[in-house]
Amino acid sequence: MIASVRGQVLALAPDAAVVDVGGVGYSVRATPGTLAGLAVGTESTLHTSLVVREDSLTLYGFADADERDLFELLQTASGVGPRLAQAALAVHPPNAVRRAIATGDSRTLTQIPGVGKKGAERLILELKDRIGPIADTGTAPTAREVRPQWREQVQQGLIALGWTQKDAASAITRLADTVGTAEGERPDVPSLLKQAIRMLGKTR
């Protein structure tokens, strides 16, 4: 298992980074929240999870070990693969996912594209006793928990669910006219993701 990579960031894409480790460039898939903390030309460390399939080896990267551990835990639930687990972390900060599972909050879980009511109930049933500690809800969110710009987050969610970058960009362009621009207003990213999916003619 490749538990982490450390090296110079060679390139950044909407859904991945290339990190030079000892002269080898590793392509690491990551959410916008993780990618926002990276910069080309700087040295960075990513905690990683290697997903092995018959026809592929895919490395997923995270800002910290807790996020990686949640990514791996989500995949132990029935019907949850790496794309859906990554989509969950693109839509909600890790502690929000943990809290929703621990408290039986299926509404929050169904905001994740690909998770319906039955899927949310299954996540709660299978993971509630294994989800781990929940951070104090009375404190303000940390910088890591503040969602990135809605365009990047919607794009990452769509790509994680299998659409191309071109399809995602088209949907985002169409969504832009519907998003409020008032100062301090934060777009409802889960709702925007659902709208984008409908625009692309595919519901999950």
Model description:
There is one protein chain. The chain has three domains: 4-62, OB fold (Dihydrolipoamide Acetyltransferase, E2P); 68-130, DNA polymerase, domain 1; 149-199. The chain contains nine helices and five strands; from the N terminus they run βββαββαααααααα. It has helices at residues 32-35, 65-74, 82-91, 94-103, 106-109, 117-127, 150-160, 165-175, 189-199; strands spanning 4-12, 16-21, 24-29, 43-53, 56-62. Helix 2 packs across helix 3, helix 3 runs antiparallel to helix 7 and helix 7 crosses helix 8 (165-175). Residues 72-91, 107-126 form the Helix-hairpin-helix DNA-binding motif class domain.
Features:
globular, DNA polymerase, domain 1, alpha+beta, 19% strand, 3 domains, OB fold (Dihydrolipoamide Acetyltransferase, E2P), 204 residues, five-stranded mixed beta barrel
SSE run: EEEHEEHHHHHHHH
Oligomeric category: single chain
Rg over CA atoms: 17 Å
Largest sheet: 5 strands, mixed, barrel
Q: Termini separation (Å)?
A: 31 Å
How many individual β-strands? 5
Which of globular, elongated, flat, extended, rod-shaped describes the shape?
A: globular
Lateral arrangement of strands in the main beta sheet: 1-2-3-5-4
Low-confidence stretches: 139-148
| Total of domains | 3
Keywords: ATP-binding, Cytoplasm, DNA damage, DNA recombination, DNA repair, DNA-binding, Helicase, Hydrolase, Nucleotide-binding
InterPro entries: DNA_helicase_Holl-junc_RuvA_I (IPR013849), Hlx-hairpin-Hlx_DNA-bd_motif (IPR003583), NA-bd_OB-fold (IPR012340), RuvA (IPR000085), RuvA_2-like (IPR010994), RuvA_C (IPR011114), RuvA_C_sf (IPR036267)
Organism: Phytomonospora endophytica
Protein name: Holliday junction branch migration complex subunit RuvA
